[in-house]
Hints:
alpha+beta, single chain, 9 strands, 155 residues, globular, seven-stranded antiparallel beta sheet, two-stranded antiparallel ribbon
Amino acid sequence: xxxxxxxxxAQNKKARHDFFIEETYExxxxxxxxxIKSIRMGRVNLKDAFARIHKGELYLYNMHVSPYEQGNRYNxxxxxxxxxxxxxKQIAKLIGETKEEGYSIVPLKMYLKNGYAKVLIGLARxxxxxxxxxxxxKKEAKRDIERAFRDRQKM
Length: 155
């Protein structure tokens, strides 16, 4: 977790299951009107979201922010494309990395930091089916060891 991270509003648990995360970056996000109020209430979903670089800028696609109840006509499209804020050098590095086959940019979590909404994005490489199975086996083995250890201490 980045230093000084605040309240976690949304996590993309499926990202760590489907991808190997090589690097992570903390990015600001450009929001409009009532979106921040809805996000503060935790009504955001990163499940199918992904990021792309377009004309030297980073954009987040398919992030669902539910409309704010009291927002009436000032609400925005829940799935609109949102701009992410990173330093030029970080974007240039991401451009170089994503040109390689199999790399993509996925949001891992969204949180509040000093009153601002931040998105933790990761440079990710896709997992194959056998990689996912291997991870599940490791997870189950670890769980079994913990269970056996816990049962042993009760005796």
